[in-house]
Amino acid sequence: MAGAFExxxxxxxxxxxxxxxxxxxxxxxxxxxxxxxxxxxxxxxIPQLSSACIKDVVTGTEAFSxxxxxxxxxxxxxxxxxxxxGFCGAGTAASGGIGKKIAELVLGDDTNSxxxxxxxxxxxxxxxxxxxxxxxxxxxxxxxYGAEGASPDRQYESARGLRVSPLHTRAVKLDAAFGETVGxxxxxxxxxxxxxxxxxxxxxxxxxxxxxxxxxxxxxAEYKAxxxxxxxIDMSSFSKVEIRSxxxxxxxxxxxxxxxxDVDKPAGxxxxxxxxxxxxxxxxxxxxxxxxENRYLSVSLPQQQTQTLWWLNKQLPQGSSIQIxxxxxxxxxxxxxxxxxxxxxxxxxxxxxxxxxxxxMSGKPLYVANAGGVIAMRLTHSHEDGFxxxxxxxxxxxxxxxxxxxxxxxxxxxxxxFALRSLRTEWFFAYWGTDLTSQVTPLECGRDQRCxxxxxxxxxxxxxxxxQRQEGIKKKFVMLTLDDxxxxxxxxxxxxxxxxxxxxxxxxxTSSSYGYTLERQVCLGYITNCESADGxxxxxxxxxxxxxxxxxxxxxxxSATMHAYPPKIVTPDYGFYHPSKKMGT
Length: 585
Fold this sequence. Notes:
Layout: H1 32-45, E1 71-74, E2 82-85, H2 91-106, H3 130-145, H4 168-173, E3 176-181, E4 184-190, H5 216-228, E5 231-234, E6 239-244, H6 248-258, E7 270-276, E8 282-292, E9 295-300, H7 305-315, E10 323-326, E11 331-337, H8 341-346, E12 363-368, E13 371-377, E14 386-392, H9 396-406, E15 413-414, H10 417-426, H11 462-471, E16 476-482, E17 498-501, E18 504-515, E19 520-527, H12 539-543, E20 549-553, E21 556-563
Parallel strand pairs: 5-15
Antiparallel strand pairs: 1-2, 3-4, 5-11, 6-9, 6-10, 7-8, 8-9, 11-14, 12-13, 13-14, 16-19, 16-21, 17-18, 17-20, 18-19, 20-21
Helix pairs in contact: 5-10
């Protein structure tokens, strides 16, 4: 008996599954052209079978999602409609646990959220398109079971180019390497920043490797521009949701209840906040900008677009006057990042950008390069100084071109998300979807300072956090730098690597990147306490100088230094440097 998953699969049932079809019993008609791939592989592995007769062919069905992960949870479009699909045969093994979780959701337990990787609300409307699904599923099977699919940078090649920024054409001309997130094409790095690299518009490699990526020096150049000069990063893919009401009191009361942080701040303030469920774990992590007394803008990662809308609408009181609108496509967002960002933008606007007039975590409307309606926020998601420019899409090309032209005098470069990842990892910034998930609380990831626990104000998840604070946490978000890793010869950490403490497994790496300033591999992740009876993780346990930490990459252990706080990094004097005193801030 022999069988295989094909490199290029054959999609079926484009018009829906026939009502009479039973996937457990019914077979599909043999397709010998499709079967040839499997036969060739079988004969290649066992040459003696080349003269054997085929006695029977069983052609069955499997269910795959467009990103190869399961589909679980409540449908965002239809209340009390729950899904459990896309298991590709693994549903048999997982049925007990999945059945229990779905049953709890059906009974109204919103504390049983699924991880974002399998939550149905990671998708957007384009994922309902039959043609998209037909094109993508052909590739998903080979992606899931082939060696290339295990490559850390592997990207799908089918059904691409669906969602693009207005700046996409500029990026293409600059030989950008794109990655896809929720169907959105995002620049990971620019080949034009290193002309010695052979052009490859995707991130896929001809050979799978877990070592130093081919773009290592390109990202280094982009990173350096962010820290020493100025760089532009297109962040238009972030989801943007407007929340407003003519009744200011009703609006503020609603958001104070939904958000963990205190959001009743003056207009022009940006607030980092989580939105928690009753278990105290994250449903969303966002930047909330108060545009005016009765209008807020919520900004979160692309994969939170559907989730944010669903969660906010779910919490709305009956008869509320609050309006919640998805305005993701309204704005192009350019992250102007670096010590010379203020000077560059200062040449294009009449508004003072001095730190006293335009402090960190604030925003205001500007005219930039004569374009009106630009919302500027002084934050960059990286600790570096700079501004996020929210530009009405019809002005975006003009503003971008002007920034690039004027920016020549400041050494401006285009940069991608890999440079941003390196910056935020060095500064111990947690990232949604990897470090922050629906299985994590603010106390565990070091964001308790973003919760109004001492204010006496109620919010979703407060009771759970108060209990956790009293009982102690069972896992903690930490930062590790590898001491004996050779970037030229050793495999890189990518995600999921085991963390050991005194030779015992205590957790996994949730995200990582090379720190170009620290000149070390930087790993972020959660650790547990396997030594105490109650499993409580304390600061003394984490920072115990006698503890020996290691990270396992492949079959090799690397010595690691534990950091309770972000390590000291030589930073340009922006006039506002405030080193964090909290873990994972």
